[in-house]
Specification:
Layout (H helix, E strand, L loop, with lengths): L14 H6 L4 E4 L3 E4 H17 L7 E5 L4 H12 L3 E4 L6 H10 L4 E5 L3 H7 L8 E5 L14 E2 H6 L15 E7 L7 E6 H16 L12 E2 L13 H8 L2 E4 L5 H10 L4 E4 L1 H14 L7 E4 L6 H9 L3 E7 L6 E4 L11 H9 L3 E2 L4 E5 L14 E6 L11 H7 L5 E9 L5 E6 L4 E3 L2 E3 L1 H9 L4 E11 L3 E10 L7 H13 L11 E4 L13 H8 L1
Parallel strand pairs: 1-11, 3-4, 3-5, 4-8, 5-6, 6-7, 10-11, 12-13, 13-14, 24-25
Antiparallel strand pairs: 1-2, 8-9, 14-15, 15-16, 17-18, 18-19, 19-20, 21-22, 23-24
Length: 537
């Protein structure tokens, strides 16, 4: 009997939307619109044009673009033809971008006009790039000294709308991107078709399983606010396409543009880091704009309760999630359960701000330094170790770091956490960010949460600094809404109060306070404690 050995390939995500939602919209900045049927044809044309340009299975296609419909096309076309999609982190330094393109052995580069001058500077040192394709986006042709093999739309139009995507091994590498390492060069993280399909299915199940609120479903309108170069925009574009929902792509982030798109396109579901949410909320307050009905998943760093409460007050259905570049990334979601219906506001807020409960197929444990599993009692803290069928197998061309990542048969997150009796994960800190005061661990995140609750505190980051008596002591770097908004005495009083309540360590009262104008961030919007340590230690 002849059967079809169904490989888990990214192309299989297309069956349902084409059957059920072929006329659904894809929108770019409110000015360009086309349907899923059109999108699928453009995916075929892109693959055909890449093939015509010499791209073959196993080759790497790199992309430098803002969040756009073109990026979505690349998410599908490149891996579906058996090639590897490299999403270039355009917020890295020029030297790091050069390193990542060479390290990934990129064969062809699709580059937005805004980044063309940078590519022109790097072009002579790009060791493997054979051709560059310009993404014009309606802008004048760049004067930068670089030869382009074509302009994206013109080049795409020459492709075959009926390009045949073959079956192949589901373990074929589909994507590569780079995450900034704690030290040294960025590390390449890679995923196969099988891994991305399983992550899509599990994330879809997790996001859609909440009884009400904090859920993503076919009636939603989706707009990503996480850069598409970063961990596949948390994998949600794949979920959105599989669901067949309306998708809105904002291009370069600007508060006024984002608010306009949320209002005009009736966006109901997004995801972002806390700093971007803070920017949108501030713009909404200034304009008196309503955000009622907008659901937002926060990741990348902890969701401060004060920020979450501000979002809730503006009508945003806010909740946190947790994952890493190495986990594709979603591992947990902080959705409310039916038993929370009668819980008080403080309990509900605390639940929404924790890391959340594991999505399907995630085996997440808290372990000690000997890999012994600790109890789920909400108090026993250790490293978060995880297994799931979509976790990266390692770092590209780096066996030593890959073995360290997977020592003992689990992926080591380098995060300290605890799991409570209901299965919710609570992040205590990063291993490298824990502050050791007089031999006792002090969580920088818990200090940040306590200080962040004070009125007038806009942002806060806590790092450990050397101290001759205590070994280390916390240094709180604080951005105030205005110089008179709060002072050192008020902050230290808040820390003493939190200490008396048992919310933070007794050694937190040794915290030094320093007011700053801004806090350094990484290319994806996270607080850059590595940079802060260089600056203040």
């Amino acid at each position: 009997m002849a059967t079809y050995d169904y490989p888990l390939l990214i192309k299989q995500l297309w069956h349902t939307p084409l059957a059920c939602a072929p006329d659904q919209e894809i929108v770019y900045r409110g000015s360009l619109r086309y349907t899923y049927r059109d999108l699928r044809r453009r995916v075929s044309r892109l693959a055909s044009s890449l093939h015509r340009s010499g791209v073959r299975a196993g080759d790497t296609v790199a992309v430098m673009d803002w969040d756009s419909h073109r990026y979505l096309e690349c998410y599908f076309a490149v891996p579906m033809m058996g090639a590897v999609l490299m999403t270039v982190n355009t917020r890295l330094t020029p030297a790091q971008i050069l390193y990542t393109l060479n390290h990934a052995r990129a064969d062809i580069l699709l580059v937005h006009a805004d980044f063309a001058p940078l590519v022109a500077e790097l072009r002579a040192r790009l060791n493997t790039v054979k051709k560059c394709i310009l993404i014009g986006d309606g802008l004048p042709a760049p004067a930068a000294g670089i030869s382009f093999a074509g302009e994206y739309e013109e080049w795409l139009a020459l492709g075959d709308a009926d390009y045949d995507f073959p079956d192949f091994d589901e373990n074929t590498r589909a994507t590569t991107f780079y995450t900034t390492a704690t030290t040294g060069d960025p590390k390449g993280v890679y995923y196969s078709h099988r891994q991305l399909v399983l992550h899509t299915l599990a994330t879809a199940a997790g996001l859609s399983s909440a009884p009400a609120g904090q859920r993503f479903h076919r009636g939603d309108v989706y707009m990503p606010l996480t850069p598409m170069f970063h961990v596949h925009a948390w994998g949600v574009p794949y979920v959105a396409t599989m669901f067949g929902v309306k998708q809105v792509y904002p291009g370069r982030y600007a508060p006024d543009t984002l608010l306009r798109l949320i209002h005009d396109e009736k966006v109901t579901f997004s995801h972002c880091v806390p700093s971007l949410l803070r920017m949108v909320l501030s713009a909404a307050k200034a304009q008196g704009a309503s955000l009622k009905g907008w659901k937002v998943v926060i990741g990348g760093s902890a969701l401060p309760p004060a920020l979450a409460q501000t979002a809730l007050d503006l009508g945003v259905d806010i909740f946190a999630g947790y994952g890493l570049s190495e986990t594709a990334p979603v591992l947990t979601l902080a959705q409310l359960r039916p038993e929370h219906a009668d819980a008080d506001a403080q309990t509900r807020l605390a639940t929404l701000c924790c890391a959340g409960a594991p999505i399907p197929l995630v085996d997440l444990q808290i372990v000690d330094e000997n890999m012994n599993t600790l109890p789920n009692d909400g108090q026993s803290a250790g490293e978060i170790a995880v297994r799931a069928p979509w976790l990266t197998r390692g770092y590209l061309h780096d066996e030593v770091a890959s073995e360290q990542l997977w020592r003992g048969g689990c992926l080591h997150t380098q995060d300290i956490g605890a799991i409570d009796g209901q299965g919710y994960l609570h992040i205590r800190d990063r291993l490298k960010d824990v502050i050791k005061v007089a031999g006792e661990w002090v969580s920088s995140l818990e200090l940040e949460h306590a200080i962040g609750q004070l009125p007038g505190v806009t942002e806060v980051a806590v790092i450990g600094v050397p101290d001759p008596r205590w070994g280390e002591r916390p240094l709180a770097l604080i951005v105030r809404a205005a110089p008179q908004a709060t002072d050192e005495a008020a902050i230290l009083a808040k820390l003493r109060e939190s200490c008396d309540q048992g919310a933070i360590s007794k050694h937190a009262v040794l915290t030094r306070i320093q007011f700053v104008d801004a806090i350094a961030r990484t290319g994806v919007g996270k607080i850059d404690k590595k940079a802060l340590r260089r600056q203040f230690i």
